Amino acid sequence: MPDGGILLAMLVATLRAATPLVLAGLGELVTERAGVLNLGIEGMMLVGAAVGFMATVATGNPALGMLAAMLAGAAMALVFGFLTLSLLANQVATGLALTIFGIGLSALLVVDYQGHPITGLATVISPGLSQASPMVQQLLLIDPLVVLALVLPFVVQWFLGRTRAGLVVRAVGESHDVAFALGYRVIRIRYLCVVFGGAISGLAGAYLSLAYTPMWTENMVAGRGWIALALVVFSTWKPVLLAVGALLFGFVTIAQFQAEAMGINVPSQLLATLPYLATIAVLVLISRDATRTKLNAPAALGRSFHAST
Amino acid sequence: MLWLSPLIAVVASVAASAVLFAALGRNPLVALYTMFIAPLGTVLGLTELALKATPLLLCAVGIAVGCRANVWNIGAEGQFTIGAICGGGVGLLWGDQPWVLVPMLLAGIAGGMAWAAIPAFLRTKCNAHEILTTLMLSYVAVQILGWLVHGPWQDPDGFNFPQTKQFTPEATLPLLIEGARVTIGALFALGVVPLAWVLLGRTMTGYRIRVAGLAPGAARYAGFSGDGVVWFSLLLGGALAGMAGICEVAGPVGQLQPIISPGYGFTAIIVAFLGRLNPVGILFASLLMALEYLGGEGLQMDLQLPQAATGVIQGMLLFFLLAADVLILYRPRLSEVRHA
Q1: Coil, strand or helix: which one is B175?
Q2: Residues within 8 A of B (CB atoms), A 24-43 only
Q3: CA A99, CA A79: separation in Å to the nearest integer?
Q4: Which of A7, A39, A279, B286 is a Cys-bridge partner for B56, taking CB atoms 3.0 to 4.6 Å apart?
């Protein structure tokens, strides 16, 4: 029977593993609620991770690193927005291009900084308590972004469901023609949502390179951007459900390490396939009911808008 | 006119690469020469070009057929890897048999098809979108390869390196030109171009694929099986990617190891778009992208630029292509529609 310390350790580890998924997933959720499908999350996260790492090496301040990562993610999203919203390019192809571009750009940017040690993100509880009991030691691993990932789903849920601005975002995502006819600036609203998605995906990337594993390795996001995308479908576009899904995935990731620690004799490479297989399994379970997915998905998702049409 | 946008995109991406090189503190003219011209100067360079274009061409034709049907197979990398594993496994088992190459190639093709059959099944029976399933299966495939070469298939005399035994000469594709690395795999790829062109443009199956992509409603009305098109295009894509995989390991790589591809399966997406989803266009696009790989290696050696620069230039190329398409298809005006 595992004691409280181990349970707490697993809980904290699950929260930490879920944090980047929650953040990136919320960014994509808001983007999709406005009717835009951005498949470039992975690329934006990678550039965020790289820029966040570089800025932290340069300034020694992880807070500035996170800010830089958000700006970098937003800049990537602006490129996507310009192509798909202003130039009406195909959203699927542009998103894929953004990911391919981001993989290369992140590796290129970081070259001169590789291997530099950084001070990772400071934790919420001050390190002065580090002589305390093992329970407290575990809580020490909680950093501000983990807290943000716990709060933000509720904020976004409230924003989309209970505010006027959120209603406008949803209107744009459900029917851009109607929203336009009502006098809302569809393109401008979509730009804002896309840029928000980019900034928070950048932050999610920075979480990986500043807190989760405080270092840079090439392609370190390792498909989390795509898992976040699957989580949006899984959550039927509802922020709090998305967080629940992310926690489930965090748990699968942690269970993989726990299984190794407990001496379960499965090769690590095969255990590493678990999050990807779980994504497929979840996607299958959720999508099987075609009508349900269709009812929940923003009706204008992936469709370009031009005022003349 | 649509043929113009790849040219515009290529010119724009070359210009943007010059800016990139300058930003990285290199002489842009020297870097451009190293990237785009130097590799073409020697016979050996040209054979290397064909070598790198082979997997790109094979994967991209499969992806393009899918895209024509609005089926997004972006997991060619995974089908490539499983093809390499299945074909390579046959080669390791019966490497001393004289005709082992034939079953190797068939196993590679079958492996890629089997891996692509999973997303086809999930899409047609469970409604799960193939973008995510094909991609997730790519990550799984790479991990399986890693497990095999670290574990059961590791060469016992390999000083614990994560790799299998070298393939025997019987299990290695014949070279096209003595002294170069390019194999007859390049001929297979070249042969696929006219076949795919005939398939798409001159057969009923190709017609169904195009209708399914352009007008799904019309395809349904005509009684074309939507599921059939999904199955066909994914299986074809898997077969071609699997063939690319086995040709790569039974050729230039020569054994199974954790990394057998510098992302050919993903770059092939760019190739497919750059080639306008047309097999002949893809042939040229694959040569260009192969040149960027070669040039990227040159940049790494001569100018100490990281290999990742290639990825950035390839990504920019796709951006420019998508933008150029729009500027050719529509006539944008700068003024926004004013609100009342």
Answers
A1: strand
A2: 39
A3: 12
A4: B286
Nearest to B140 among A89, A233, A276 (CB): A276
Express each pLDDT in B249-289 by its tens digit.
Answer: 999 999 999 999 988 998 999 899 989 899 999 999 999 99
Give the closest-approach CA distance of A284 to chain B in angstroms.
Answer: 5
User: In this predicted complex, what is the ipTM?
Assistant: 0.89
Per-residue pLDDT, averaged over B196-210, amounts to 93
Contact at CB, B315 and A273, closer than 8 angstroms: no
pLDDT of residue B202: 93
Nearest to B286 by CA among B308, B267, B304: B267
Q: What digits encode the pLDDT tens for the residues A44-76?
A: 999 999 999 999 998 888 899 999 999 999 999
Instruction: Give the whole-angstrom CA distance, residue B255 versus residue B252.
Output: 9
Contact residues, chain A, for B133 at CB < 8 Å:
280, 283
The mean per-residue pLDDT over the stretch B307-312 comes to 85
Taking the Cβ of residue A92 and every Cβ of chain B, the question of whether any pair is shorter than 8 Å is answered with yes
Amino acid letter, residue B153? W
Residue A309 has pLDDT above 60, yes or no: no
If you write DSSP's letter for every residue of A192-244 in order, what string do you get?
A: HHHHHHHHHHHHHHHHIIIIISSS--TTTTTTHHHHHHHHHHHTTT-HHHHHH
